[in-house]
Amino acid sequence: MKKQLLRILKGSFLMGLFLTLLGFQQVQAQQQVTGTVSDAEGPIPGANIVVQGTTNGVTTDFDGNFSIEVSPEDVLVISYIGYSTQNVTVGNQTTINIILVEDASQLDEVIVIGYGTALKKDLTGAVSRVSSESFENQPVTRVDEALQGRAAGVSVARENGAPGAGIKIRIRGVNSITGNNDPLIVIDGVLGGDLSTLNPNDIASMDVLKDASATAIYGVRGSNGVILVTTKRGSGKGQVNVDFFTTISEVPDFLPTLADDVGEFARIENLRKLSIGQNPTFTDAEIADLVANGGTHYQDEVLRTGVSQNLQISASGSDTDGKLRYFLSGNYRDEEGIVINTGYQQISLRSNLEAQISDKLKVGLNLFGSRGETKNNFERFGNGQGSTIAKALTWDPTTPIFDDAGNYNRRSIKGIGSLNLNPVLTLNETDAKDVDEQFSGTLNVNYQITDNFSYTMIAGTRVNNFNLERFTVENSNDTPAANFSTNKFTAFQLSNIFTWQKIFKDKHNVKLTGVQEYSNNKTSFNSYNADNLVLPNGFFFAETGTGFSISNNASERELSSFMLRAEYIFDNNLSLTATGRYDGTSVFRPGNKWGFFPSIAAGYSLINPAESTGFISNLKLRAGWGQVGNQAIDTFGTFANLDGNIYAFDGGAPDPGTFITSFANEGLTWETTSQTNIGVDVGFNEGRGNFSIDGYKKITSDLLLEVPVSGTNGGGTVFQNVGETENFGIDIAVGYDIIQNENLNWNANFAGSFVKNEVTQLFGGLEQIEGLVTVPGGQARRANLIELGEPLGQFQGATFLGTWKSAEAAEAATFGKVPGDAKYLRDADGEIVFGAIGNGQPTFTWGFNNTITYKKLDINIFLSGSHGFDVYNLMQAQITGGAGDSRSFLASDQVNQWTPANETDVPATVQLFNSSRYVEKGDFVRLSNLTIGYTLTDIAWLGEGTTIKIYGGGQNLFLITDYSGYDPEATSRRPETGDNSQGNADVAPGINVGAYPIPRTYTLGLKVGF
Fold it and tell me: Is there a single domain that holds both residue 233 and residue 110?
C-alpha cells in the first residue's frame, strides 16, 4: 500500500546514490548483465542491485530495468525498501529477472510524517503508527475502536453508547480552556477530515504526530496533535473481499433501584412526605397491592436488546503492468440502540484510483461519500433535568405506562417521582432524525522533475450537510413541537509541495520540503422552531404551529500558509529536522493575522539496526522542541456580538432593539503551545521486540479566554489573550513477538500514557472560574470549575459529611437542620462551602493488544484501561431524589436511610445534588475485544485463491470498576453550541446526568476473499 509512494519519492534519489558510488569503485567487468526488478503489481523503479562485498552497484530505472558489468562468480544483492532482499549468483547468465516479495516487518518502517514520508529509523519526532494489521482481526465499525489503546499518548473514548455517538480523541492532554482540543485529521493529504464517518475497512494506516517538532509542519492547525490517515490502494491481481457481521447488544447490568421492590418504595415515599409535613401518599391497602402485584420497572421498559448488521465490500487490484491501480469499497451499517426507538444507519462509498501516466507523471483521484442517519438522539432532547435515561430511573414505578383506556399516563398519577413526561411516551412518540451527508474528493498529482526534484499538488474539497428534523411531544405545554435546522459546510484546499533530496559522498542525505497551501471553508446555518402544533401528526405539519422562531447564521474563514522543512541524515546514524511554518488567518485583524511556528529535532542511533549483531538491535535517542498555534475563536470573535430583543420603553407598544453581548478586541492573536520532547527507541532480538518511551512538557500560553466585563462598563464579555495551561507526560510503547514459529505466533503490544494537566495562570488575579454545566434538579448551581494550580476538569460542589445525628440536634438547629438531614462542610460564618470535590480527567490510560495464530485459527484479545479520574454521578443524585423534579427516593440504599433507631449516613430528607456524596472513582479495566476466527483456504468450488473466515466474539465483555453507574467512560451533556452551551467538553469531563449506556455486544461474522 505504500510501495508506489516510496518508488516515486525514494527511487529517483537512490539511483543518484548508486551512480555516485560507481564513480568511486573500479570494476573489472567481464560480462554485461541486464534484467528487470518487479513485484506482483509490476516494475519497481529505484531498486538496488549491488555486487556483494563491493560498492559496485546500480539502480533500476522507471521501468524497473537495469544493466551492470559483473564477473561470473559475483553475487548480486537485490534490495528495495519494504521487500525481502534476494541474492543471485551471476554464473553465465546475461539476463536476470527478479520478483521481490514484500517484507511486512520492513513495510511498517515507512511512516507518513505529513507532506511526505520517512523511515522509522530516521524519525526525530514523536510519531505513533496504527496499521490495519493491528485491528483486522476484530469486528470494527468505528475508527475509535481501531485507534483506542493502540497509540501511546492518545486518549480515545466514546462520548456515550448511543449508535453513531461522537468520538473524543485527545493527544497528550488538553490545551485550550475555551477552544477546541480535537486533533487535526488529515486523510490522504487533505486537512480537516472526519473520523466518525470513515469506514475502518478503508484504512491502511494511521500515523499520529504527537510532539511539536512533528506537528509544527501544520502550524496553527497542529496545536492538538495530528492524525494522518492513509487509505488503501490497490495492487496486483484483482481481489474482492466481503465482510459481514451481525451484533447483539445489551446493557451489561441494570442499576439497582427501589423499582425492584415497589412496596419498599411506597413505604419510603410515605416517610418522605411525613418528614416535610405532608400526608402519606399510599394507604396500607395500596402498599399491600404493590407488594403482591409489583409496579412498572421503567428502566426495563426503555432498555432493550439491539440487533445490528454491518456489511463491507471492497475490490482492489491493478492492471497487468501495474500502471493503473484501484481500490473500491462500500459499507452499510444498521445499528439498533439498546434504548427503545433509537438507532443509526450509514452507507458509505469510496473510490481510490491511481495512474502512472508516464515515467515522471503520476495522478491519483480519491472520492468518498457517506450518509448517516441517527434516530432519536436523546442527547438533543434537552438535558436540563437529566437525560431520558435519568427520567426513566426517577419516574414513578407505581404508575403504569398506560391507563385503563389504553392511553399513555402522561404524568405520575400520584404526582411523585419525576415530574417530567412519561419516558416511554417521550421515546416512542418522538421522531427526531440527525442526517449527516458528506462528500470529499482529492486530486493528487506528482511530477518527477529531475531525479532529485519532484512536485506534488493536492487539491481537495469537502461538503457536509447536517440536517436535524425533530418532532417531539415533550415540551412545557405538553403539546407537539417541530424543529428543523440545516448546517452546510463546504471547504477546499490547494497544496503545492516541492521536494528535493540528494545524497552526498555516501553519508550525507539532505532533503528539503517546501509547501505553499491555501484553505477556505464556509458555514451557513438556518433553523426554525414551531410550537403547539394544531395537527399533532409529525414533523411536516410544523406550519400548523402557533408559535414560531427563526435563526440564521453564516461564516467564512481562510488560511494561507508557507512551510519549509529540512531533513539531514549523516551516515544513517544522526538525523536532524528543522521546520518553519508561516500561517495567515482571516480570523484575526491586520497586524495579528500572521504567525510563525518553528521546530527543531534530532535523533542519534547509538546502535544502528543495519550494523547490529547483538541482542539489542536498535538504540536511538531523540529530542525536539517546537511551537504550534490555535485560532480558538469564532470567525467573528474579534468583533462585538449583538443580540436582539423588544422592549416597551415608555410603557406603550414594544420596540425592537439590539444590545451588546460581547465586546470587540482587535488585538487578539494565537494561542501558542510550546512543547519539548525527549525519547528513546529500543529494538531487540533481531527485530522481534521494540520499546519506546517519550517524556514531554507542553505549555499553552495566551489562552483565548472569555473575560467578564463589569456592569458599570456595560456587562457582557470580551475575549482576551490571558491564561496558561501545562501538560507533562510520559508515553510508553512495548511490542514483542512472544512466540514465532511455523505454526504458532503470538504478538503482543502495550501502549500506555501518563499525563498531568495544570492551569498555571488565569486573569485578573482570579484563582478560579465557574464552569457552564448546570446541576439538574432546579438548584441552579454549576457542576464544574476551572481552578488555578489544578487540572482542567474540576468538579464543584459541597463536601458531604454524612448526616446530622441525634447527639448533634442542637448544633444542627443553628443551621435550620434536624437529625437525619444531610450534613456538609461549612465555613466560619456557617455557610456551606462550595469548591473542588473531584476531577474527571484521567491521568493514565493504556491498551494491551494480543494476536495469536495457530495454523488457520486466530485469536484477538484487547484489554484497555483508564485510571486516576472521578465521575460526578449526578444521575445517582437524581435517583436519590429529594429535590427539583426528582422528588422521590428511588436509590436502593435508601432502605438503610437514617432513623432514630438506625443512625446511618444515608439522609432521610432533601439534600444537595452537587455534593461529594456523588463523586466516585472512575478507574476501570475493560475487555474491549475477544474474537476467535478460523480461515478456510483454497476452496475449490469457489475458485482458486478463495478464502473464507468465520469468526465470533464479543466487545466490552467485562468491566472491572468500583463505579456504581452503567459505565465510567460514558458521560452526558448538552451540545456545546447555542444558547444552552455548556462550554468546552474538556473543562467538564466525567459529568453524568444520564448517559446512554455503553453496551456489551456479541458478534458473529463471515469474511470471504475472492
Answer: yes
The percentage of the chain sitting over the pLDDT mark of 90, rounded to a whole number, equals 53
| Distance between CA atoms of residues 140 and 951, nearest Å | 13
**How do residues 848-859 score in pLDDT, each as one tens digit?**
999 999 988 999
Q: What φ, ψ does residue 990 adopt, rounded to 5°? A: 75, 15
**For 236, what's the count of Cα atoms within 13 Å in the CB-facing half-sphere?**
11
CATH code for the domain of 134: 2.170.130.10
Does a structural domain hold residue 282?
no
Query: What number of CA atoms fall less than 13 Å from residue 844's CA on the CB side?
Result: 8
Q: Are residues 193 and 87 in the same domain?
A: no
Three-class SS state of 261? helix
Contact 327, 234 (CB under 8 A): yes
Question: What residues make up the domain containing 77?
Answer: 3-102
Q: Are residues 71 and 121 in the same domain?
A: no
The answer to whether residues 486 and 444 touch, using CB atoms and an 8 Å cutoff, is no
Between CA 318 and CA 323 the distance in angstroms is 7
Residue whose C-alpha cell reads 437524581 in the numeric block: 878
Beta bridge partners, 362, equal 356, 446
CA distances to 752, 870, 873, 994 from 794, rounded to whole Å, are: 24, 9, 14, 19
Q: What is the DSSP letter of 201?
A: G
The number of distinct structural domains making up the chain is: 2
CA distances from 835 to 825, 917, 985 (A): 10, 14, 20
Is 1010 in contact with 240 (CB distance < 8 Å)?
yes
Answer whether residue 843 is part of any domain.
no
Q: How many CA atoms lie less than 13 Å away from 887 in the CB half-sphere? A: 16
Do 98 and 171 belong together in one domain? no
Q: How far is 926 from 85, CA to CA, in rounded Å?
A: 42
Distances (CA, A) of 464 to 439, 491, 492, 615: 7, 9, 12, 52
- Cβ atoms of 126 and 696 closer than 8 Å: yes
Question: Is the domain of 67 the same as that of 146?
Answer: no
Question: What nine digits make up the cell of 329?
Answer: 469499497
Question: How many whole angstroms separate alpha carbon 873 and alpha carbon 990?
Answer: 8
Question: Does 187 lie in the same domain as 229?
Answer: yes
Provide the pairing of β-strand 655-663 with 717-721.
parallel
CA–CA distance, 29 with 70 (Å, rounded to integer): 5
> How far from 710 is each of 638, 713, 720, CA to CA, in Å?
19, 5, 15
**pTM for the model:** 0.85
| pLDDT per position as a tens digit, 516-535 | 999 999 999 998 888 888 77
Half-sphere exposure of 318 (CA within 13 A, CB side): 21
Q: Domain for residue 785, yes or no?
A: no
Q: How far apart are CA 911 and CA 668, in angstroms?
A: 44
Taking only the tens place, the pLDDT of each residue in 651-703 is 666 666 666 777 888 889 989 999 999 999 999 887 789 999 999 999 999 98
